[in-house]
Design goal:
The protein is of the alpha/beta class and 213 residues long. It is built from seven helices and eight strands; from the N terminus they run E-H-E-H-E-E-E-H-E-H-E-H-E-H-H.
Length: 213
């Protein structure tokens, strides 16, 4: 009797405790395989180290990796609670092409009807971006910025061939800058949106699974 290979796991990486809280799973039966939500800590160095460390475990050899959490929107007209699905992530060390972007956009639109979904390059930074720096990053073609996605995906693909993606929720934007996440309406809106995205991640996972080697 032949044995079916175990499905590859899904690793969902976020940085902050409030993001991890939003991503606590209420239904563990929807994913295409085992799901781990990893809190990496803030910043690119922490994200890179946390993801690389976990992916050394043979159980995660073929894991699909999805970076998520909050981000700063760069384009005029963005609002807190908008979604960003990265076509690629960038930082000074390189660019990583995301997989299954169209599927994620479709699923997010289905589960969050009326919510605006933006697609484009997601750039990385080692600090919180404010004011004029947004315009400089926007001029590179990026639509949003965060501190961990680029480092997470770069670490993931350096650890082996695997599908990767990044989905972020806009917590502040050029016309809606926040001082502290969760203390104003924009932060609360972003938190509520992040709580709702897991079904889209599970559908992405089911459709991009790589066979175990």
């Amino acid at each position: 009797m032949s044995t079916q290979p175990a499905p590859a796991p899904l690793l969902i990486a976020c940085a902050l405790g409030i993001e991890h809280l939003a991503l606590r799973r209420r239904d563990r039966g929807e994913a295409g395989g085992p799901v781990t939500v990893l809190r990496t800590g803030m910043g690119p160095r922490a994200a890179e180290k946390s993801v690389a460390r976990l992916l050394t475990d043979p159980a995660f050899a073929d894991a699909a990796v999805l970076a998520t959490g909050f981000c700063a929107g760069l384009a005029p007209g963005m609002h807190p609670g908008d979604l960003v699905v990265a076509e690629e992530t960038r930082d000074p060390r390189g660019t990583v092409t995301c997989v299954g972007t169209e599927l994620l956009v479709k699923e997010l639109a289905r589960i969050l009807p009326g919510r605006t979904v933006h697609t484009g390059p997601l750039t990385g930074s080692d600090h919180v971006v404010r004011g004029p720096e947004r315009s400089a990053l926007r001029a590179t073609g990026a639509i949003a910025v965060d501190m961990e996605s680029a480092a997470t995906l770069l670490s993931a693909v350096r650890s082996g061939e695997r599908p990767v993606a990044a989905v972020r929720v806009v917590v502040d934007a050029p016309e809606h800058e926040l001082v502290r996440i969760g203390t104003v309406r924009g932060g609360i809106s972003a938190f509520r949106v992040l709580r709702s995205v897991l079904p889209a991640f599970y559908e992405w996972h089911r459709n991009v699974l790589l066979p175990r080697r």
